[in-house]
């Protein structure tokens, strides 16, 4: 046996291939039924100048701000293959000066050679990989069989299902040839339909069912209880699902709770998914939208010259949006700099025509939830409904005309669906629609009934864009030709019927205008981790 040097550990070799640790002086250890060795890295203490020892404080005077002692780190651990798990854990606990509480159902053997690991990692290799659960309670190592446990997770989200459908229809047939069934369109019409379903509770229910069903052949058994008054709100229905291995899933949207009974490894997967899901759906964005109309001067008959905005004194930084998507062919640019750059663009556009702000809206939307801007007016017009009247004398059937008031919405409707990534990059589905009444046509029937029909001018687009938070998306290219008529002449005389025409003057002006949309998203709250609220 070698003599121990100061400041070093002395280790003797046992005849069974493994090492035992001597934490104090050099001593030989006779071979026993368990052969293992462990080297615990000693805790270093800072060099302090020799001073008089301070008085020992009382428990009441001690400060609770002291940091907890560091976890022991094992530099070398060798456990012979075939060592019973209870014996290995007991020996490890005794060498570290800790106690061991081992369930009688813990059986099997273990063995490993580990270097420079923590106590938790060592237990994971010796116990966890053998299918047993362990935990450190103070100075006690506790090992138990893996059993199903139940955890309840908080999921804070409103119990509601949102379904939105938007259609753009371009008619290529005369209205008289349209089908008689309301709500249908001819087969040769161009229809672009976009639909979004915001059913968060149904999403997480399906995802957790997939996690718990993984590896099981038998399908789960589900029961549900409708917790709302709407039969179509699938996501807001409380449900209970039982799986073939005995695990279960209970989802309660009204209380915001998800209860899962499963093995510990599945519970860890569920906890990780619920936390990530909560972070994703809790992201929200402030959407600022400015819709302007530029009545172009005669020097710009082909629309706004965007190249002129990047030259001259303005020097605006516009980059072409290269998002590979299908859209309506309008121009799209990304503008950095926020509201100040938008104001600079508006001033520069004033050099090419008259700028009018049609809408300046601001709203907040959650991740993958649709936000709708609607600034419109319901204009009323009268259509004619004909009702046949039976003849009492056997003659021809008469027709009764009845004027029926109808409405048409005129104004601005903007639909935005944002998707926010973890690095604050947004992918947005944007659908602006601007309608106005170009003129009102009227017709007088044989019985003198007057029917009016508005001619509605519509400019709309449906596109998908991707940009960083804080950038401004510029959508242009929505041109429109408008003819305005102005009546002038001699006051009072021009309004006299028949003889007032020589004193009346009508001036017609053709105006070419372009619609420009500025959309600026700003992420206002990053994903907040749900640590501490995931389980009870």
Question: How would you portray this structure in words?
Answer:
With 536 residues, this protein is mainly β. The protein contains six helices and 24 strands. A six-stranded antiparallel beta sheet has the order 15-16-23-24-14-17, with helices on one face. It has a five-stranded antiparallel beta sheet with strand order 7-13-12-11-10, with helices on one face. Strand 5 and strand 6 form a beta hairpin. Helix 3 packs antiparallel against helix 4.
Report the biggest beta sheet as strand number plus sense, adding barrel if it closes: 6 strands, antiparallel
Classify the beta-strand content into a percent band. over 45%
The count of β-strands is: 24
Radius of gyration: 39 Å
The ordered H/E elements are EEHEEHEEEEEHEEEEHEHEEHEEEEEEEE
Mean pLDDT: 74
Instruction: Tell me the span between the first and last alpha carbons.
Output: 55 Å
Q: If strands are numbered along the chain, what order do they take across the biggest sheet? A: 15-16-23-24-14-17
Helix content: 10-25%
Structural class: mainly beta
Residue stretches low in confidence (pLDDT < 50, at least 5 long) are: 1-65, 174-185, 227-232, 321-330, 527-536
Q: Tell me the overall shape.
A: elongated
Q: How many separate helices?
A: 6
